[in-house]
Amino acid sequence: MTFKEKHHDIESCNISLNAVKDALYVLNGKWKLPLIISLQDGPKRFNEIQKSLGEITPKILSKELKDLELNEFVIRKVFSTTPVTVTYEITPYSNTLNKVIDELRDWGLKHRERLIANRKNGAAPEKP
Asked: What is the pLDDT of residues 30-75, one digit of tens each?
């Protein structure tokens, strides 16, 4: 059964639309999912996260980490060392995004391959 077949009436469509809007509200922007992926191999300090993500500014990284913490995807741990050590790690709840991340990664790889192949062949994009 395809997505269209499952969501064909107005009520089902509205429920789906609201669910997708809620998900996008929580995961909006280009950094939240990459941030979660960056932390999947274990806790990291702020600068380590910034280096792993590349072009993110400290201000944006700080905001994104706070948002993810508020939505229970990331835990901020403060250690009373000198100087103070702060690490960030994903919560078990973050694992609920694994299927989403896997699907996005697979789609992204296929999309990139398609674009590269079409450019090499000089093919025009397919019309819908």
From this structure: 999 999 999 999 999 999 999 999 999 999 999 999 999 999 999 9
Check whether the bond before 58 is cis (ω within 30° of 0): no
Q: How many CA atoms lie within 13 A of 59 on its CB side?
A: 0
Q: For residues 10 and 86, what is the distance between their CA atoms, to the nearest angstrom?
A: 48
Handedness of CA 15, 18, 23, 24 (dihedral sign): positive
**CA 73-51-96 angle, 5° bins:** 20
